[in-house]
Amino acid sequence: xxxxxxxxxxxxxxxxxxxxxxxxxxxxxEVSLSFEDFLYRAPYRFGGRDVDRVTLLNVSLTVSTRSGKxxxxxxxxxxxxxxxxxxxxxxxxxxxxAMKALAARLRNLVAGYKEYAHPVEVxxxxxxxxxxxxxxxxxxxxxxxxxxxxCTLVTASxxxxxxxxxxxxxxxxxxxxxxxPDFLPRDLAHFLTGDFKxxxxxxYILSSPKPRLAVxxxxxxxxxxxxxxxxxxxxDGLPETLAEWIxxxxxxxxxxxxxxxxxxxxxxxxLKIDRVVSEEERKRGVSRWFYSLDFNERCPNVEYxxxxxxxxxxxxxxxxxxxxxxxxxxxxxxxxxxxNDMHRASKxxxxxxxxxxxxxxxxxxxxxMGYTGIALKxxxxxxxxxxxxxxxxxxKMFLCVQDLTCPGMALLESAGLAAHVPGxxxxxxxxxxxxxxxxxxxxxxxxGIFIIKDGTMRTNKLSGPGLGAEV
Length: 471
Fold this sequence. Notes:
The protein has helices at residues 15-21, 81-84, 92-111, 119-140, 149-171, 242-249, 263-284, 302-315, 317-321, 343-346, 360-368, 382-394, 408-420, 431-434, 440-443, 447-450, and strands at 27-46, 49-64, 70-78, 212-219, 253-257, 290-294, 323-327, 351-353, 373-377, 398-402, 426-428, 456-458.
């Protein structure tokens, strides 16, 4: 990181400064939360673990403008504790319980914030208090491992989404069309670094959504590829093998979950999937399709990754050329693993950070270590995501938007984010595979988002007030 650059989050301003900076700011009046639980139709294996259930944190809040107008907003996010709070000592229920306890603490902090401000300002101001709350909850619950920052961001994200939703509705505009100086007068240098002096978020975020996005279909590490891979059929009428999913959804983009600790298996997994996808796409008359590869930080070192790339390229040149990017191959703690330099690997394929990306400092460090792309996720907050999208574009990095097996409202948030980030033309939509029951109440109202037929998601209607979808 260049010396002398200030890094977000900046020190908090006084209430008077925020009032001067945000004439269209809103004040939070009421905040409530609830949880929903769903079982997966089949386990999803990634990062060496199987996930078979999801808990959603749903948030509703009300805001008021300076003129006294009121508006409500909603946000939702899967807790994703296996991903956000991986632990060798704590059980699934323990990490989920910690996130629920933290959510209750965050609700009080958000409800207690009474300054008029833009959602981005609120998120930046409150994040330090959220992190302190996570430390307090960790101590109170006597956790063997403290709640990680990534986990705190995930827990806070539906509060941030609900605030963006309410802010946009209060002003009768999409929250993505409310990022310019008329709504957020402070320039990006205030939130990022001096590199952004005189620049505003509307330079980096589209005010209107792209009409459609290609859908990345996730292939979990235990997912059936062919009929012969199935031990027991689910029999719910949905596809149960990759070969069945491709024609059913018209797929052209595939995210392949890999092990990271078994080189031969990882290579053969990619080659097998490439063979099956190639056959199915040829049947459909499709000539171009793409892969992303996700090791979920399990590769022991960059040499493993380089050898993996070499073997795939040797055995299937076409399969190698279809790899659009590789995601988070090694440990998420970049500072503790500086030897995992990605410069050699990223010359072959874009290498993207995901779990590592929790703030601008981590982005700049990743860039210094040879990462060439960043994964944006609504589960880390809309506010952080638009700021990181601006930084990624400024530093000419590859951008992609992914989900956390987000169903329902959470998928609408993820889709809206992807549709407004320049250069991001794909999105993950894993819930339709693993937890379709959570999507069913939404399918009739938003068929273009929740029902995939030609491999794409219709996002053109995500242009209404707030997050863009009237729910």
